[in-house]
Design brief:
The chain is α/β, with parallel strands linked by helices. It has 15 helices and 20 strands. The strands form five sheets. A seven-stranded mixed beta sheet has the order 14-15-16-13-12-17-18, with helices on both faces. Strands 9-8-7-10-11-19 form a six-stranded mixed beta sheet, sandwiched between helices. Strand 1 and strand 2 form a beta hairpin. Helix 9 packs across helix 10. It is globular. It starts with about 20 loop residues before the first strand and ends with a strand. The structure holds adenosine-5'-diphosphate (ADP). Adenosine-5'-diphosphate binds next to helix 7 and helix 8. Adenosine-5'-diphosphate (ADP) binds next to helix 7 and helix 8.
């Protein structure tokens, strides 16, 4: 998710919050219980909106709406090119409101406006457009079977999909999930994260304005163990697409099994970022900094295990430390800000607990390690050196601005250590020796490997985890396939 350099000139104004209810069958509704929950601005801890707290009754209504649209409505039967046209229209409307949506994301999540303007929202638009282009290109094949038969396959929409997303890239996660679902003709019930429901609700409004029929996209804000669990258990849902923690995915998997729902999971990681002594050091230092601190360290693919070859280790760490110290923390509405607050108190507490674990386990704290300021969930960019593979900060996902630096000496050793984890979402390698880079990339048990770069995402490039980092892939053609059922049709020709 490379951030561009274009910045708005002055401090950005707070946006209006317009949509706070459930969006079901094209209507904005309070939760059946009448309950609401607070969403806050993480930089000030103030309540910015009261949002409908959906639960089972609201999920039931939303699944009914999605089911009715899928089984009897126009969406999945529509000329596929027309479906694509409506998706392009949605992308255009998001683009027209890009600045406002970016500000809404910054308000709800706390991420710097420079990131939401130059990374999150442009990637949302690109993802919807990419999948709009697929809508009329979803094809089956003809199969040469024995005997006097004609055999072909069709790729049909999987049906009603339940989509559960996290808070770290709220609008972008919605786009990753809506894109392939809409292109294939599925209908959607989405449960956004309780910390960050606002951009998803706004995008639902824009989808309706674009002419996407009622019932195609339904959004039920609420908590995971209530609204989320009801969505997973609902027999009217054909597939669950989930991004979040591995422990939650295991709960979801068990429940989804009861009705044999299809599942795709995009989960966490402890991604190795490996710097060989022959790397372009400037690029690798900036890459290592970006790989971990981007988005306040709240990335499932964060380069949180930084392995540096012994020959360059000390110089590398010195220079990286300088860069870390220069990182501008502050008001996320200031375009100069590089690091905003963590999303909430729970994450803030968890991260600082890991800082204590790092110290207790004997790692050396070289910068950061404390709260920044006295209001909001800000944490200084933090780096530990002398980290050993079995320390808690090297093994467990922290999801915050805490870097663990580990030393290595040779290529075989580092491949084994990089893979010595149950996760396998992403990895990176920095070297000028391109053959070594490719050989090393082949050895890594990870769904994405970046060579001399980090966090380079594209809607066309599949993303997902090996091992416990996930199931299935999102984005690209692989992401599309996960929203279809393959039907084989065989015709007697005599
Ligand atoms: P995070 O630490 O990123 O919040 P979670 O896995 O807890 O990770 O949350 C990701 C999403 O999963 C959120 O939308 C959350 O509400 C939802 N969720 C949490 N628990 C459950 C559950 N038991 N069933 C379904 N969804 C859940």
């Amino acid at each position: 998710m490379a951030t561009a350099t274009e910045k708005p000139a002055k401090k950005v104004a707070r946006p209006k919050i317009r949509q706070t209810q459930c969006f079901i069958g094209g209507k904005w509704l309070d939760a059946a219980s009448g309950k609401t929950f607070d969403t806050i601005h993480p930089a000030t801890e103030e309540v910015i909106a009261k949002v409908a707290e959906g639960d089972k009754a609201d999920i039931d209504l939303a699944v009914d709406a999605a089911r009715a649209q899928f089984d009897g409505g126009e969406w999945s039967r529509m000329n596929a090119r027309e479906r694509g046209r409506l998706m392009y229209k949605l992308a255009d409307l998001i683009e027209e409101e890009a600045d406002e949506l970016a500000a809404l994301e910054t308000l709800d999540n706390g991420k710097p406006i420079n990131d939401s303007r130059n990374a999150d929202i442009p990637l949302v638009i690109d993802c919807i457009r990419y999948y709009a282009g697929w809508a009329d290109k979803i094809q089956g094949s003809t199969i040469p079977v024995s005997g006097d038969y004609f055999c072909y396959t069709r790729r049909e929409p999987v049906g009603v999909v339940g989509q559960i997303i996290p808070w770290n890239f709220p609008a972008l996660m919605a786009a990753w999930k809506w894109g392939p679902a809409l292109a294939t003709g599925c209908t959607i019930v989405m449960k956004p994260a309780e910390q960050t429901p606002l951009t998803c609700l706004r995008m639902a409004h824009l989808a309706q304005k674009a002419g996407i029929p009622d019932g195609v996209i339904n959004v039920v804000p609420g908590y995971g163990p209530t609204a989320g669990a009801a969505l997973v258990a609902h027999p009217g849902v054909d597939k669950i697409a989930f991004t979040g923690e591995g422990a939650t995915a295991k709960i979801i998997q068990r429940s989804a099994l009861e009705t044999m729902k299809r599942v795709t999971f995009e989960l966490g990681g402890k991604s190795p970022n490996v710097v060989f002594a022959d790397a372009d050091l400037d690029a690798a230092i900036h890459g290592a900094h970006f790989a971990l601190y981007f988005n306040q360290g709240q990335c499932c693919c964060a380069g949180s295990r930084l392995f540096v070859q012994d020959k360059i280790h000390d110089e590398f760490v010195d220079r990286l430390q300088d860069l870390n110290k220069s990182r501008r923390i502050g008001d996320p509405f200031d375009p100069e800000t590089e690091q905003g607050p963590q999303v909430d108190q729970a994450q803030f507490d968890k991260i600082l607990k890991y800082v204590e674990y790092g110290k207790e386990d004997g790692a050396k704290l070289v910068n950061g390690g404390a709260r920044h300021g006295d209001k909001g969930y800000f944490i200084e960019p933090t780096m530990f050196t002398g980290v050993k593979d079995d320390m808690r900060i090297a093994k467990e996902e922290i999801f915050g601005p805490v870097m663990s630096v580990l030393k290595f000496s040779d290529v075989d050793e580092i491949a084994r250590r990089a893979n010595a984890t149950n996760d396998g979402l992403a990895a990176a390698v920095w070297t000028r020796d391109i053959a070594k880079a490719h050989r090393f990339a082949n050895k890594l048990r990870a769904g994405t490997v970046w060579i001399n770069c980090y966090d380079v995402f594209d809607a066309a490039a599949p993303f997902g985890g090996f091992k416990e980092s996930g199931l299935g892939r999102e984005l690209g053609e692989a992401g599309l396939a996960a929203y279809t059922e393959l039907k084989t049709v065989t015709v007697a020709m005599n």
